[in-house]
């Protein structure tokens, strides 16, 4: 029998810090001489974070969710990679921020993969600074609440991330809320910027017998419905020069519906290229030398594509 490749699934809501944790895991794995393979699923048409993973074997599943239409794509791509001679030593799968991890886990039970992949842990990353806020903000959107719940319920390790942005009082509330939905055995660790002890991150924790797959045709329908209509990823290409101050104002104006944004831009103040990340209502700009195109991805709920793009071009671009 083929040797099984150890696998880690990273789950968590939009902008919670999955990629940040993944980068940390890759660093550790590489330092141990391991060759990682990454499966990265993005809601948008472009993976604007590809440059963060230089020299790494990556399967990019874009413009959809592993949960729905591209579950088969993941299976076949993985099968292919795992059959090649120089396959990696460790596999990381990062779902989109709106993926139900159950579907990813389920994909690994496919007859062609089950003997090849050994799921070690489902790492559930929570933005501690926004957890409570999201629960009230999405109170009326049942499927989003369910999703947030599933991402925690199925975690073998829970990471309360972004504690640098979380007050002590709020953190205590989040601890209580998260703990109430988990068994005592599931570790909950706290972190800023995904800095978590290596042993915690890499421990083998996942147990198949604790999974309970129960899909009816009705569920399937519900699921597709949810992903097609709740969250949208809007791509803006050929972004002109962005005025930073106006951009921040604009983001603030749209922060009810716009949950996450990322991309590569040029600011009007300087000719440099910047990678930008907008999550937890915070804008982060990092100068970068590697950019293929200036593109932005906006992710949110109930967004009007045309209006959003028009207002961005009118109010932010110079
Ligand atoms: N202040 C602060 N920022 C963080 C922390 N962890 C991650 N970030 C920032 O939050 C933003 C989103 O982080 P990612 O790791 O890309 O989040 P993600 O869960 O992969 O996001 P999606 O692409 O939406 O799935 C980035 O700007 C990170 O640098 C943290 O602990 N504290």
From TrEMBL:
Keywords: Chaperone, Hydrolase, Nucleotide-binding. Residues 233-313 form the CobW C-terminal domain. Residues 6-184 form the CobW/HypB/UreG nucleotide-binding domain. The keyword Hydrolase applies. Pfam families: cobW, CobW_C. InterPro entries: CobW-likC_sf (IPR036627), CobW-like_C (IPR011629), CobW/HypB/UreG_nucleotide-bd (IPR003495), P-loop_NTPase (IPR027417), Zinc-reg_GTPase_activator (IPR051316). Gene3D superfamilies: CobW-like, C-terminal domain, P-loop containing nucleotide triphosphate hydrolases. It catalyses: GTP + H2O = GDP + phosphate + H(+). Belongs to the SIMIBI class G3E GTPase family. ZNG1 subfamily. This is GTP-binding protein. It comes from Alkalihalophilus lindianensis.
């Amino acid at each position: 029998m083929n040797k099984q490749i150890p696998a880690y699934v990273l789950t968590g809501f939009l902008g919670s810090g999955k990629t940040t944790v993944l980068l940390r895991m890759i660093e550790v794995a590489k330092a141990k001489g391991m060759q990682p393979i990454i499966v990265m699923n993005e809601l948008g048409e472009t993976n604007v974070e590809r440059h963060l993973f230089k020299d790494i074997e990556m399967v990019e599943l874009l413009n959809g969710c592993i949960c729905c239409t591209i579950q088969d794509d993941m299976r076949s791509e993985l099968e292919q990679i795992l059959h090649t001679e120089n396959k990696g030593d460790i596999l990381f799968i990062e779902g989109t921020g709106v993926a139900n991890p159950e579907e990813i886990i389920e994909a690994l039970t496919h007859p062609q993969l089950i003997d090849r992949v050994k799921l070690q842990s489902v790492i559930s990353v929570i933005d501690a600074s926004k957890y409570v806020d999201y629960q009230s903000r999405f109170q009326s959107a049942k499927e989003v609440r369910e999703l947030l719940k599933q991402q925690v319920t199925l975690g073998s390790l829970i990471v309360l991330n972004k504690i640098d942005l979380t007050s002590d009082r709020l953190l205590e509330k989040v601890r209580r809320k998260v703990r109430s939905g988990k068994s005592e055995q599931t570790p909950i660790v706290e972190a800023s910027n995904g800095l978590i002890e290596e042993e915690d991150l890499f421990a083998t924790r996942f147990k198949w017998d604790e999974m309970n797959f129960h899909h009816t045709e009705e569920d399937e329908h519900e699921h597709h419905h949810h992903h097609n209509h709740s969250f949208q990823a809007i791509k803006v290409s050929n972004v002109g020069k962005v005025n930073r101050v106006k951009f921040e104002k604009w983001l603030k104006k749209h922060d009810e519906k716009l949950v996450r944004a990322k991309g590569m831009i040029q600011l009007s103040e300087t000719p440099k290229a910047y990678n930008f990340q907008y999550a937890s209502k915070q804008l982060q700009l990092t100068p970068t030398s590697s950019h293929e195109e200036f593109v932005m991805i906006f992710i949110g709920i109930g967004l009007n594509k045309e209006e959003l793009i028009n207002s961005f071009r009118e109010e932010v671009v110079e």
